[in-house]
Amino acid sequence: MRVFIRPNLIVMTLIGALGVAPLWVAAEEPILTFGFTDLDGTFVAGTNQFTAVATSFTDGDVTRVQPTPQTANFIHDFRAGGSMANVVLNMSLSNVRSTDASATGTITITDFDGDTLTAQLDGVWTPLDGFASFSGLLSSVFLNPTGDGVFEGSNNGTPDGSFSMDFTGFGIEPFSGAKLALSLPDHWFSDGSFSNANTLIEASIIPAPGAVVLGAVGLGLLGWVRKRFGRPVSA
Known about the structure:
By secondary structure, the protein is mainly beta. The protein is 9% helix and 48% strand. The chain contains one helix and 13 strands. The strands form two sheets. A nine-stranded mixed barrel has the order 1-12-9-8-7-6-3-2-13. β7 (101-110) and β8 (116-128) form a beta hairpin.
């Protein structure tokens, strides 16, 4: 996955844990992951709405990890050529202060022909070592076969990689879990509206307790930010 570094950057990582999982599933092994770069982040102070949507620069993938890795690739400008593919994240913020802000919202990932992955978000933003960190719950995670029931990527108007949306062997939908996000401080919400904030998202759906997943991934993400941007980040 390519990363385009821009001055106004928001990095978001979502971690999902199954509400129910069979005993034979490895405790820390994800069944599904997704990641996208260069989403366009916008915050409107008057309504306290934050959105991040796909642009012609956005790249990413959605990968079914178990039982066999299969990836749906979303190559930049993947919405062209009649493709229905898209990524849309919406958040409604409340109690916005210089120290924190509450937020709820949704994320929808649409594949080439209209199948979707949807989830609800609920948590709190706080400043963290030059970034703004959001942690909370990722709940009501559904894989919706509203197209052909096969989740397909998109590349210049044609499908690019796919996997079956049947996860019945790994729990009962909806799945639920936790979410963590980081952003640069020059876009803290109490400072007012902003737009064109380069937003990155990474996510995993993991058959493990949400609290354990959140802590483990939080530490991993801090290391990733340190490596990616070359700045100190403390846990």
